[in-house]
Write a structure and sequence with these properties.
Blueprint lengths: L13 E8 L2 E8 H14 L4 E5 L19
Antiparallel strand pairs: 1-2, 1-3
Length: 73
């Protein structure tokens, strides 16, 4: 598994994020920490149209691009 396909926090569960950008829905997996920081940044800066946490497994989804940037302060 390449680094881009590994969780930065393998001890945490992955969550399913649905990002809406210009009407397109994009689904990603992200570790819980990265997902929370990503959600907080989007709430503060509004770079995208919307983001939701979808219940259920994130198995088989591509990882959130640049997930490691959302590891925390």
């Amino acid at each position: 598994m390449t680094a881009e396909h590994r969780s930065p926090h393998p001890d945490e569960p992955d969550v399913h994020l649905r990002v809406t950008l210009r009407g397109e829905q994009l689904d990603f997996a992200a570790c819980l920490t990265s997902a929370l920081f990503f959600l907080e940044e989007q709430r503060q800066r509004c770079y995208i149209d919307g983001v939701s946490v979808i219940p259920g497994a994130a198995t088989g989804l591509d990882r959130l691009p640049n997930e490691r940037l959302y590891e925390g302060p």
